[in-house]
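Researcher: Please predict.
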Amino acid sequence: MQHTTLRALAFLLATACVQPSKLEETKNDSLAIAVDESLLGLEALDSLTGLSLKVPKGVSDRSALLSESSVASGQLFSTDDQTLTVSLMSIDSLDKAFYQQFFNGTDSTINNGTLRLLNKAKIMINGLEVDQYIFQGPEVVNFKLAVYLPTDKVCEINYISARANYETNIKKIESSLGTIQYSF
């Protein structure tokens, strides 16, 4: 299980370096997300940025697998069978300019073309500006969010679902998205 969790972390880091192609962008000033509390479990708080959210029910905290740092924070949650993984990450040196450059990038593939950028959008969730990317690979779908906080810090959230479980996981992911908020 630790090997699978480490693969998920490697995937997160790899997608953090992708520069997506120029796609048709969606801009939505206000996104109303239906939250089904029955699909949600633990509340996660990024101690570096003050961003919080409720993770989908059925995921367990695997944050002990991550290294502690004074310039980065992270939390990792996943189901026992690794069909759904959620991560919260923030790194002091990565700011809004970095993520904006990422959003406006030109290369849409990683891992020798196994992961494609399906969509990207600029949205607002509970008053927070968010860049959202949806990547798809042969075995996974990744919702990657760059959440811009009032303090000029950025928190990155990844929801990674096994494609075989996507239909089951999408409602959980959407409900979790609706709980994202700044709490400092």
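Model: The domain at 2-182 is CATH 3.40.1000.10 (Protein Transport Mog1p; Chain A).
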